[in-house]
């Protein structure tokens, strides 16, 4: 006779997965969330039932109540980042010329540390390829700071540049051109509205080269970027013009209604957004001149007039 089959015991992870799949046992809701305070409790959002509470705390053993405490108690280094050519894994020698206790070091030690710093910088890049990557990533960082884009965009731009480098797309093109195109692609991918004109202002290459390189790497890397939505530019433009929430909401309505009628096809998103803001400001009695709107949106007054006429005709306003 065959022996009795032994059923494998379910682990806590499998039980958690099953509970997450079936939902809350109390109200049968699927809205289950895991708390982010380190305890890792599994809680139902609708009825508040704590489904699971005995989880491994993977956080630190110490507690901190502000940023300075957290910094002083932390015993780990900074996380790895794609924005540095070595991903932030190499060491750096500080330029303060002070010892661990904050006291100034002697002139002999200063000259020794100066030599060490120089050699440390040299050995961080082993060949010309790494030096070029270091330069490209520093360019991305410089332009990102000038444009005021968040850290996530810098990371994405660095990843795009590294992919282009791995696929040998840099050959025959300038490092600055590819770096700028990668940053522009990252802005579009992350939904951060920055026009080609704005990127070209902080770049060290011509706008035509940026556009050409961007189209090339987007096609070769299959980035699959969708056309920019003019609505993305509305909050920033309205803020710079000092317009109210009412105007911003009206602008969104104008763009949505006219876009549904096919007016957006082939039009510049910045010019389209600028014209909608101008129309909304007139309708809400917060008039701004075409010149004021054009300066903020970096388009011509002629563009605003043409788009404005098209939009009011599509809305049936005369």
TrEMBL record:
Occurrences of domain TFIIB-type (ranges): 19-52
Regions of biased composition (Basic and acidic residues) lie at 1-13
Database matches in InterPro entries: Cyclin-like_dom, Cyclin-like_sf, TFIIB, TFIIB_arc, TFIIB_CS, TFIIB_cyclin, Znf_TFIIB
Is the keyword Transmembrane in the record?
Answer: no
Q: Which UniProt keywords apply?
A: Initiation factor, Metal-binding, Protein biosynthesis, Repeat, Transcription, Transcription regulation, Zinc, Zinc-finger
Annotated GO biological processes are: transcription preinitiation complex assembly
Cite the NCBIfam families for this sequence: PRK00423.1
**Family that this chain belongs to:** Belongs to the TFIIB family.
> Under which name does UniProt file this protein?
Transcription initiation factor IIB
Identify the species of origin.
Natronomonas salsuginis
What is this protein's gene name?
A: tfb
């Amino acid at each position: 006779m065959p022996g009795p089959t032994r059923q494998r015991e379910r682990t806590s992870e499998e039980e958690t997965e099953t509970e997450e799949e079936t939902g809350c046992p109390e109200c049968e809701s699927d809205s289950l969330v895991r708390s982010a305070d380190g305890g890792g409790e599994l809680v139902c959002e609708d009825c508040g039932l704590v489904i699971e509470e005995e989880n491994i705390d993977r956080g630190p053993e110490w507690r901190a109540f502000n940023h300075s405490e957290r910094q002083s108690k932390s015993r780990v280094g900074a996380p790895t980042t794609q924005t540095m050519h070595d991903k932030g894994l190499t060491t750096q020698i500080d330029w303060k010329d002070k010892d661990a206790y904050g006291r100034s070091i002697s002139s002999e030690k200063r000259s020794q540390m100066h030599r060490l710093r120089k050699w440390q910088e040299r050995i961080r890049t082993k060949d010309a390829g790494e030096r070029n990557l270091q330069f490209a990533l520093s360019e991305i960082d410089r332009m990102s700071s000038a444009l005021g884009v968040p850290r996530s965009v810098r990371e994405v731009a660095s990843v795009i540049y590294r992919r282009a480098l791995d696929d040998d797309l840099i050959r025959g093109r300038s490092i600055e051109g590819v770096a700028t195109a990668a940053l522009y692609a990252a802005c579009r991918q992350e939904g951060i509205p920055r026009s080609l004109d704005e990127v070209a202002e902080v770049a060290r290459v011509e706008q035509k080269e940026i556009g050409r390189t961007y189209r090339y790497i987007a096609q070769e890397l299959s980035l699959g970027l969708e056309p920019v939505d003019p609505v993305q530019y509305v909050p920033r433009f309205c803020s710079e013009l000092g317009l109210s929430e009412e105007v911003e909401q009206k602008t969104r309505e104008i763009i949505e209604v006219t876009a549904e009628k096919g007016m957006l096809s082939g039009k510049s998103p910045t010019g389209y957004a600028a014209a909608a803001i101008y129309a909304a400001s007139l309708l809400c009695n917060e008039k701004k001149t075409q010149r004021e709107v054009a300066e903020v949106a970096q388009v011509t007054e002629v563009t605003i007039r043409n788009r404005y006429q098209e939009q009011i005709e599509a809305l049936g306003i005369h």
